[in-house]
Write a structure and sequence with these properties.
The complex is a heterodimer of chains A (about 500) and B (about 300).
Chain A: H1 3-6, H2 9-23, E1 29-33, E2 38-42, H3 49-52, E3 54-61, H4 71-86, E4 94-98, E5 102-108, H5 113-121, E6 126-132, E7 143-144, H6 160-167, H7 175-178, E8 181-183, E9 204-210, E10 214-222, E11 225-232, H8 234-246, E12 251-256, E13 259-262, E14 265-266, E15 274-278, H9 283-295, E16 302-310, H10 312-365, H11 372-401, H12 406-441, H13 445-479
Parallel strand pairs in A: 7-9, 8-14
Antiparallel strand pairs in A: 1-2, 3-5, 3-16, 4-5, 6-9, 6-12, 8-15, 10-11, 11-15, 12-13
Helix pairs in contact in A: 2-10, 10-11, 10-13, 11-12, 11-13, 12-13
Chain B: H1 8-29, H2 35-38, E1 40-46, H3 56-65, E2 72-76, E3 80-85, H4 90-104, E4 108-115, H5 117-145, H6 152-181, H7 187-217, H8 223-255, H9 261-290
Antiparallel strand pairs in B: 1-3, 1-4, 2-3
Helix pairs in contact in B: 1-6, 1-9, 3-4, 5-6, 5-7, 6-7, 6-9, 7-8, 7-9, 8-9
Classes of the chains: A alpha+beta (about 500), B alpha+beta (about 300).
Chain lengths: ~500, ~300
């Protein structure tokens, strides 16, 4: 019975060492080679947006409010955005669905927010539009009859001047697609013969097919020229086949975000579900077009509901300062505990150190993204972790005063303080849960971060304040004879 | 022994006194909502290469030239400019930044927030729901935890009453600081508020717990002296816990980053109010209820003698 508690000192010491090793600031990765398997994990501290700087965007489905957004469509949209963002080379981007109409995008450490926003905003709708016999100059805006929501539309098709220059073959502005033609692979390339643009009023063009019908789009080299080859899905193949058979010689414009990116003429019927867009593309232009074809179409059009750009200047300063504040807070608390509660206070401080170490190690392992309020929450939870101990020690003092022996007082103290500790911490956890829910409604990762760190702190503090302190106290009493010297216990 | 419960009406009066300036503030000046709730754009930018000190009036002229003349402009040290306007979309934001750059040189972006109007309204709604849910959740939990002792429901209600006191104090302070120091109520403020709610109840529960225990032990004591006794017994613990939390918060307020200062001070005010309300409001309210002192408002039907 005597050594029952003392033996637990060993696992606690091991835990302490392990946690300290994990939490050590300069330790950034775990590399374990166990012979039959290796285990590698990055455990550097993750800094949140407000500490590193970066960009946070809340995207919302750009559809009328009463139109429900299909979850499958939303998932596909998110995947597309993910691939675009990966192209930016941001480490640890966060893209998450929030509710059924919203997507949160967080790009920490992003150097160039404008570029990112432009890329994400380019979340357009790709359409294959029947332009009849009109060659639509690249970059012109068109109206189509595809209903997507409240995209802003600008005027009609071309101005006469740009059409005229297009006739001259390759010109500066419309070079890439002036000679483009859509053909099945491996056949020759007649050139497009553009006609001057039509009508002063704005015609609405019919959308034959959207980008949802595209399966792949790649850049290839064919007969010494760079072309963009595409394949269609089965449904797309049929629609495309039908349309091209019926419309040879007419223009099938490729429109992204209501802006024409290419205006090839249909050379012949394409029923194989494969096609090639030819023109005097440079590799870059072809790549760009292929990317746009692949990713330019989103099943669900999105608009930016909220955007936050955070410069890194504020953050760097604050991290250092918070560390100092944390250490000072810890020191003052420790001092107070020792002065007021004497011996149990010292043990509580040891438990507190263990608490800080374990919690920080958990932050690194899970990992929990640290935001400034999150760090504040962590420092605050240090003050709260002590609360459980204070409850216990005050109870212990009462028991001692009423004449109980030391060892009984300790046990009673822990036993009778437990209901208060349990109930009060649960109420804190309830508010953490609600905070977390609130934060996840809007992708407010700052609020979420605080809720998470506080909740984590509550759990760990329950362990260290109760289990560890009790073990320490008991093993001390078991092994050292205090002869009921109450003064050591703060009476 | 100090008689806290006996003097309870003095303490209620003190509570009202503390809440009063805040409530007046809310009534007269309203709540200083940030764009998180009202929607709009806020640009916090610094111009290290600007000559002299940037004047708000000049900035307004620049903004007028790009069509955003009805913005609110503030300046702070190091030629930091804070601009608040209605929501800017990407092209407008670029226009504003370019115009400013043309006049003041290279910009260091501290922070740019654009919140669409629909999002803002929704956040407000969700915030209110969050506070409401927290209150209900806690009420239910306390009622459950105190099941088995007479009138368990009352404990929950009194705890919530104390919590409301703290909420009003915190919001009142925010309103006053908003008027005189330019504070804003943003999502972080809400976070602080919900944390204060959590802790206020945390405190109150400790006192109630002692009441529960004493009820079993001292069956023959009057309710009043029972409550008083419980309060005194938990006084040490309440004050000590308050001290440790206040230490850590003050350390953060003094040495922590400037961006969370408002957050920390809000927490400080809330915590102190929370401890006060747990000791001087929540438990005495139990007595008021038991003694049926407020008759028609809260009370029970007189039991058969």
């Amino acid at each position: 019975m005597q050594s029952r508690y003392t033996i637990w000192l060993i696992p606690i010491a091991i835990l302490f060492a392990l946690a300290a090793w994990l939490a050590w600031p300069s330790n950034n990765s775990i590399n374990l080679d166990l012979g039959f398997t290796t285990f590698v994990r990055d455990i550097s501290a993750r800094l949140g947006l407000d500490l590193q700087g970066g960009l946070q965007i809340l995207l919302e489905a750009d559809l009328p409010a009463d139109k429900t957004v299909e979850s499958g469509a939303m998932e596909a949209t998110i995947r597309i955005i993910e691939s675009r963002i990966n192209a930016l080379g941001v480490s640890e981007p966060l893209i998450q669905q929030s509710g059924d109409r919203r997507v949160v995008v967080e790009l920490p450490g992003l150097k160039n927010p404008e570029q990112a926003i432009a890329l994400i905003r380019q979340t357009g709708l790709l359409e294959f539009v029947d332009a009849g016999s009109n060659f639509l100059p690249e970059g012109s805006s068109v109206k189509t009859d595809y209903v997507t929501g409240s995209n802003s539309l600008t005027g009609p098709a071309a101005a006469p001047t740009s059409a005229a220059t297009a006739t001259a073959g390759a010109t500066a502005t419309s070079a890439a697609t002036a000679n483009a033609g859509v053909t099945p692979p491996a056949s020759a390339t007649p050139s497009a013969s553009p006609t001057p643009a039509p009508t002063p009023e704005s015609p609405t063009f019919h959308t034959v097919m959207t980008g949802a019908a595209l399966k792949t789009a790649t850049v290839q080299s064919s007969q010494g020229r760079i072309v963009v080859a595409f394949t269609l899905t089965d449904e797309g193949k049929k629609v495309f086949g039908d349309h091209t058979s019926a419309n040879v010689g007419r223009v099938l414009a490729i429109v992204l975000d209501k802006k024409v990116i290419s205006s090839p003429r249909i050379e012949s019927a394409i029923t194989g579900g494969e096609g090639v867009i030819q023109g005097s593309f440079t590799t870059d232009e072809a790549n760009s077009l292929a990317l746009q074809l692949r990713y330019g179409s989103l099943p669900v059009p999105l608009k930016i509901a909220e955007s936050r750009t955070i410069g890194p200047t504020l953050g760097q300063d604050s991290v250092r300062k918070s560390q100092i504040a944390g250490i000072i807070g810890l020191a003052v608390t420790a001092l107070f505990m020792i002065l007021y509660y004497r011996l149990p206070g010292v043990l509580a401080v040891i438990a507190l150190l263990l608490y800080v170490t374990i919690t920080f190690a958990l932050f690194k392992i899970i990992p929990v993204t640290l935001t400034l309020p999150g760090i504040a929450g962590f420092v605050l939870s240090v003050g709260v972790a002590v609360d459980a101990n204070i409850l216990i020690f005050e109870r212990m003092k009462e028991e001692l005063r009423s004449g109980k022996k030391l060892i009984t007082a300790v046990d009673e103290g822990f036993r009778r303080a437990w209901p208060s500790i349990r109930d009060s911490n649960i109420s804190t956890l309830i508010t953490c849960v609600i905070l977390f829910w609130f934060g996840s409604q809007f992708g407010a990762s700052i609020v979420k971060g605080f809720a998470l760190t506080l909740a984590l702190g509550v759990f760990v503090s329950l362990f260290t304040a109760i289990t560890v302190t009790r073990t320490l106290l008991h093993s001390m009493l078991d092994n050292v004879d205090f002869s009921e010297r109450h003064s050591w216990f703060g009476i | 022994m100090v008689n806290i419960v006996g003097k309870r009406y003095w303490y209620f009066a003190l509570s009202l006194l503390v809440m009063l300036p805040g409530l007046i503030g809310i009534g007269v000046w309203g709540l200083p909502l940030s764009i998180d709730f009202s929607g709009g754009s806020k640009l916090e930018v610094r111009y290290p290469k600007a000559e002299g000190t940037i004047q708000p009036a000049d900035v307004k002229t620049v903004l007028e030239s790009v069509g955003f003349g009805d913005s609110i402009v503030q300046t702070s040290e190091n030629n930091t400019v804070i601009i608040r306007t209605k929501t800017l979309d990407e092209p407008s934001q670029a226009k504003v930044l370019d115009a400013m750059k043309a006049k003041y040189g290279e910009v260091t972006v501290l922070r740019i927030d654009n919140v669409g109007p629909t999002v803002g309204a929704e956040v407000t709604q969700k915030a209110a729901i969050a506070v409401g849910l927290a209150a209900i959740g806690i009420l239910l939990y306390i009622t459950y935890a105190f099941w088995g002792i007479p009138h368990a429901f009352r404990y929950g209600v009194c705890a919530i009453a104390a919590m409301l006191h703290d909420v009003l104090v915190v919001i009142g302070v925010a309103s006053i600081f908003g008027k005189f120091l330019g504070w804003e109520i943003d999502s972080l403020f809400l976070t602080a508020l919900l944390t204060v709610i959590g802790f206020s109840v945390h405190d109150t529960i400790v006192v109630f717990d002692r009441v529960r225990e004493n009820q079993r032990l001292y069956r023959r004591a009057t309710y009043e002296s029972l409550i008083n006794h419980s309060i005194i017994q938990t006084l040490d613990r309440s004050l000590n816990t308050q001290l440790t939390i206040v230490f850590t918060l003050i350390a953060l307020a003094l040495f922590g980053g400037v961006t969370i200062q408002h957050f920390i001070v809000t927490l400080l005010v809330g915590m102190i109010s929370g401890t006060y309300s747990s000791i001087f409001n929540a438990a005495p309210l139990l007595v008021v209820w038991e003694n049926n002192e407020w008759g028609r408002f809260i009370g029970r039907k007189p039991e058969a003698a």
